[in-house]
Backbone:
């Protein structure tokens, strides 16, 4: 059989089915996101380019819109009429964000607090001395804290010193200043102990003014430690002994004094192997 032009066979034979006007209407099931507020189907689908067709907050948000004024908007800028605790993302100002219980940082309103950073209340997070100082902290022992480091002054460093004798009578070889120069490789050494235990040597320190001393440390020069030594303070009239101690080896002796006050101090030493010598004497 041959057809004419573009005509279909049904048209040719009059077989096109016609709607039955008496059949009941079929109700179309419309997904919520494609309904308007009256339950009527929207003309087009809710999408990023058709936000006005989004009829619920959920679909609006999924399409990248912002739900307020009961409609889906393309921008959250401008007024934020529904900025509240449930819509912190719509708060466009720090004040309204904070009033809604949000946290304002990164130029937006967040529901969670920002991660703590180095500041006055988080000094432990400051990792450099500069950031620590800027936050009002104190940098000590490679960490930042609110507690200023205790500054301990060694008053012996600035004291004037004198001694009973010098190594072979030459002051220049091991001068008494060597015992308070802050240098562990320089030392004062007395003259030879001709009378053994019965020979006493001493050193005196003038701190320049009365100082409260809590601790004295004496680093003896190798084997040149005394067998017995005592610590004295000048009270304005006479010398007062405050410590009398025995020594059995070299190294460093630590003497606690509980803040005794004094300007003039004397260390008296007896006995020892050939000489007595001090590498460093510190008064704190
Ligand atoms: Ca020294």
Residues:
């Amino acid at each position: 059989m041959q057809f004419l032009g573009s005509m279909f066979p049904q048209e040719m034979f009059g077989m096109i089915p016609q709607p039955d006007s008496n059949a009941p209407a079929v109700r179309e099931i419309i997904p919520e996101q494609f309904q308007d507020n009256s339950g009527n189907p929207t003309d087009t689908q809710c999408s990023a380019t058709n936000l006005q067709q989004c009829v619920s907050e959920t679909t609006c948000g999924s399409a990248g819109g912002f739900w307020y004024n009961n409609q889906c908007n393309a921008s959250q800028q401008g007024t934020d009429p529904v900025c509240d605790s449930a819509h912190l993302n719509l708060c466009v100002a720090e004040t309204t964000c904070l009033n809604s219980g949000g946290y304002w940082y990164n130029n937006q309103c967040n529901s969670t607090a920002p991660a703590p950073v180095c500041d006055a209340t988080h000094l432990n997070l400051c990792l450099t001395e500069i950031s620590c100082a800027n936050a009002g902290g104190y940098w000590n022992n490679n960490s930042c804290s609110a507690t200023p480091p205790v500054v301990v002054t060694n008053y012996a460093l600035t004291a004037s010193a004198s001694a009973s004798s010098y190594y072979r009578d030459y002051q220049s070889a091991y001068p008494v200043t060597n015992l308070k120069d802050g240098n562990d490789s320089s030392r004062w050494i007395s003259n030879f102990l001709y009378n053994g235990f019965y020979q006493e040597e001493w050193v005196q320190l003038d701190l320049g003014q009365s100082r409260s001393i809590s601790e004295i440390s004496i680093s003896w020069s190798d084997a040149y430690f005394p067998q017995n030594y005592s610590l004295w303070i000048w009270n304005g009239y006479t010398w007062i002994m405050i410590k009398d101690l025995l020594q059995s080896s070299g190294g460093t002796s630590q003497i606690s004094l509980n803040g005794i006050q004094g300007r003039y101090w004397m260390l008296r030493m007896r006995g020892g192997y050939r000489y007595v010598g001090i590498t460093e004497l510190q008064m704190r």
Observations:
- Residues 116-150 form one domain.
- The chain is about 10% helix and 30% strand.
- The helical segments are 9-13, 57-62, 94-99, 129-134.
- The radius of gyration is 46 Å.
